[in-house]
Amino acid sequence: MVSIGTVDRVLHNRGEVAESTKKRILEIIKDLDYQPNILASTLASKKSAVFATLLPNPPSPHEYWYKPVVGIKKRVSELSQYGIKVIPFTFSQTDPKSFISASDKVLELLPDGVVFAPFFKKESLSFIKKMKEFSIPFVFIDSEIKNAGQLGYIGQNSYQSGLVSGKLLDQILRKGNILVIHFAREMDNQNHLVQREKGFYDWFENNSIDNHKIFTTEVPDTNDREWMERIYQIIINKDIKGIFVTNSKVFFTGRLIEKYQLQFMKVIGHDLLKENVEFLKKGLVHFLICQRPEEQGYNAINKLFRHVVQKRETAKENYTSIDIVMKENVDYYKAFK
User: Fold this and answer.
1) How far apart are CA 243 and CA 235, in angstroms?
2) Are residues 253 and 267 in contact, defined by beta-carbon separation less than 8 angstroms?
3) Which of 161, 201, 244, 279 is deepest in the core (most CB within 10 A)?
4) Domain 158-290 carries which CATH code?
């Protein structure tokens, strides 16, 4: 018979305990498969943490980047007893300089961990280098940079998402040329869109390249009144019958189709934005590839919490589902609760 105090000293390696007693206690612990109460031990340590998020600025609650914030807030509210705080920082999706400015503010804070979207690869690598100097753990969300020292990545496998999109468009468009549209600037610097495009091209390269010719274009600024006319001319001159939009801006393509009466077009895009769903229900967008961004935000904060506060190991990659949403099933996708 040993006291609770003796067991506690063995568990936490505190104080002097006879070797024979220590050995007997450890054998009993092993036989019982004992696991310490993580909740109790964490609360007892009174360990709190300050995390930072660095995400693109959502112009409205209907935009894609508003959605991960919903998940982040939900997980933080669940962790209120731990004193977890999250300080948000945002940047413009069209301005790498705004990313640099925001990341500098994150470093001034010296948080216990960071969740961020490596939207601009070059600037993200510079930010990562500085975080490593301060031993700040970080989690990628939505897109990733391989082998960058991240604690983990939460999001779709962008390359596989591109493969899925290629197969879908190939099946609904047996013959006809295809246009890949990037509604983005500095494409070489936006890793997740590059990977989606690569997966898309690889599908056709390995399966049905003879039935299609594929062209790619970029629309860096949708405030430019001429962009629709430019895309329309490509469609007419290249005899385009299908369109793949690599990000959540597929509703711009829906507007183009309505303006120029191109209802024959087969279109695939990304994400359950309100405007995208409207064109899905009209039949002007045929499939949306979705990735549950609310859950990404939720799980990213949880990963930092488990690592920083609970000192638990976490998986390096947490790929989210690649959901295929169409007019017939879109109403069954409920809001994140």
Assistant:
1) 9
2) yes
3) 244
4) 3.40.50.2300
Average pLDDT score, the chain: 87
Q: Is 152 helix (H, G, I), strand (E, B) or coil?
A: strand
**Is the predicted pLDDT of residue 43 greater than 60, yes or no?**
no
Could you count the other beta carbons within 10 Å of the beta carbon of residue 266? 19
**pLDDT tens digits for range 49-89:** 999 999 999 877 778 899 999 999 999 999 988 999 999 99
Which CATH number is 46-156+293-320's, of 2.170.190.11, 3.40.50.2300, 1.25.40.390, 3.90.1150.10? 3.40.50.2300
Q: What gap in Å lies between CA 103 and CA 124, rounded to an integer?
A: 9
Cβ count within 10 A of residue 37: 9
Rounded to whole angstroms, the Cα distance separating 107 from 131 reads 7
Calpha distance 228→234 (Å, rounded): 10
How big is the CA angle at 295 (ends 293 and 298), to the nearest 5 degrees?
Answer: 115
- Looking at the predicted structure, is the pLDDT value of residue 5 above 90? no
- pTM for the model stands at 0.77
Torsion of CA 124, 97, 224, 227, to 10 degrees: -20
Residue identified by tokens 């935000």 is 297
The tokens for 245 are: 């939009």
For the chain, the structural domain boundaries read: 4-34, 46-156+293-320, 158-290
CA distance 169 to 167: 6
**What is the model's pLDDT at position 184?**
85
pLDDT tens digit sequence for 306-323:
999 998 888 777 888 899
